[in-house]
Amino acid sequence: MQKVITATERPSIPYEHPDAAMYLKLMKENLIRLRYRKPAYSRHDAYIRQQFAATGHLQQQCHDLVRYIAEAFEHYAVWDFSHAYYPGRPSQQSARTDAMEGCSRVLPTLAAWLSQNEGVTTVLNGLNGQPMDIGLWLKKAFLAGTDPRHPGYWGELHDYDQRICESADLALALWMSRKVVWETLNREQQGQVIAWFKQVNHCQTVDNNWHLFPLTVQLVVKALTGDDHVELQRYQRIKEFYVGDGWFRDGAKGNYDFYNAWGFHYSLYWLHQIDPSFDPEFIRDSMQLFAKSYRAFFTPAGLPFFGRSVCYRLAASAPLLAAADINCLQAHRGGLPLGEAKRAFRTSLEYFISHGAMQHGAPTQGVFGDDTRLVDNYSGPASSFWSLRALNIALYRGQQLNLWQADECPLEVEKGDFAFNIPSIEAKVIGTFKTKEVVVIFQSDYCEWQDPLSRRLERQPLARKVQEILTGRAERPKNNLLRKGITCYSSKMSHFF
């Protein structure tokens, strides 16, 4: 019996129902995008694919991946690194918001690298051999993005604003780089930066995983300044979404899907890092229970993906690394060894990147290469950088965890056959040792009405594609297969092809 969660009425969000004035604004922002857009940076695509095509030293692979990302970011960045116009399909927000994501979703990776080189260097050499001062980039970005007089200003936040989501990644990047960036700002500059972040205290969000975004910002502000505006009622609402076995429902009527990995548990991990006294028992216990069954999802060649935002696929191992870091699972008690988390992380990176998941300096908008059918309307050219969330944890804590030197342990499907249920989400998980395949079968439907043609990935009609090009706003069909009645998902991922 699934837990009943009290629902709230979903608000009418302007960017989901644009009027003529908004379409005019979207078109203007699209023209600005065309002005600042640069050619796709493909110089090192073949190299990074080759680096992950064969098993190498994980630390060097991750280092090269950061170099690859940073070099391309410098190419695309505008207005003192506060925005970056990446090539790709637009979101349903404005082109400027898409460009902000090109900064906000890259900075955590750069900050994580910076945190591990603290006191040594802030300079990273690109794959082209040219030095890049990462500390200086971050400092410029925060000062430009929070200055209303600067062309790179991130703007005034409003209810249900996509920039609320982005503010969490920016706050996390500021916290990770605090010794190099925050502590080198003068009092006026610090006040300017914090004033921008404090806007989230007055903004409404959609009633789902979005509650975690203001919480992240507020805990960072508290850690840096001592100002306590943490909205505990948001955190209590997140806990209401918890249904057991480590799983959260993404809103009262939302999905059980991989947002548990790269949304809920990733954010909870960082709340724990920023403030270790913030409900540590629940965070540790829920992560332990989640990883206990979720670890079985991983294979050396694919994952049984279900739900939305498939383009975040490289982040799937994030909660396993997080669990290993905060010692949720003790190997001697039958928990997850660090070596198994490492193998899940490495094989996931190698499988997807070796098949083309990184192009033009960014994760593609698809599973391997770009695939319009799999790009949600809220996803823009740089949204896929959430794919780096497992990498962020590895960079931030790899040395302390001894991740880079740890011996790998086999994945569950590499040990033998298995079958078990996850009662809280009404799912059955089956692993077959001989084929190295894992299948997840949901035992209830998300939708009542369906027919054979409705259970498929729809392609974008030509007229909608033309409209998307002209307005700069996503006009793609909704292709969440869970919502279409698909209940069986294999790690061979044939349901996407």
Automatic annotation (TrEMBL):
Coiled-coil segments on the chain, per record: none
Domain of life: Bacteria
A Pfam family hit: DUF2264
Domain DUF2264 per the UniProt entry, residue ranges: 60-410
Protein name: DUF2264 domain-containing protein
Organism: Photobacterium lutimaris
